[in-house]
Design brief:
alpha/beta; 39% helix; globular; eight-stranded mixed beta sheet; 8 helices
Amino acid sequence: MKHVIICEGNTDLTLIQYFMEKVHGWEHIKESDYKDFEEGMINKIRNAKLMKWFKHPGGAVLSIMSAGGVSRIPGLLNSVLDMNQLGSIVPFSRIVIISDRDEIQTEQHFLDEILDKFDENAIQFAVDPRNNEWNTAVYTNAMQDQLMVDLLPLIVPFEQTGAIETFLLQALSNASEQEDPDQVDKLVIDQCIQFIDSIDCKDKYLRKRRERTKAKFDTTFVVMTPAEAFGQRRDLLRSVPWEKFELIQVTFKQLRKLSEL
């Protein structure tokens, strides 16, 4: 089987990759090894900002793609659905879309944009898809084969406005409360958030909400790992065992289905 996870940016892709490797046993496939897979199993998708492929011991193949922003997700999804319609390439059986809960747009508005792309490709769901649930649709491709596709929308955090970074800081803060009597990590996170919220940049810096969210996240890690302050965000993400945190386990538990046949 062949699956895909579509997310907003490269930070999200790195976290999801790390989680899928650590928790569910997925292994990154190098480009030099693409030739070892069935023709049509691994292919390029236009509109993807970054795209990585993974294999699972159970035999499934997974692509994780970053769209380069929430507004680009519907277009990238449309490219995936176009590919599914061809019939000459192995279709994606399960599609996951992971996005931030941004106050600029409602959850339903985002889901409606996603559903519009399925409607444009003549893919109909029996009931309207819901966040954090697997939803099944039936469609007929260009070869007149009747196929099924599963969709999982994951708009996180589930219960509040924010971004992937908001969710990660909350997970780290929760772990600090439970495991550290001094709650050092929680104190650092709270103070970094307060600092970014209080700083006045005169509209020269941090003009967008998204920039302030990322600044809170990055400032926290600059304090926690100052020697790596100028390293890649990927390295910072990998330095924390996110897969051990209960909040992350609960939020991403539906991704387990990608490992099942």
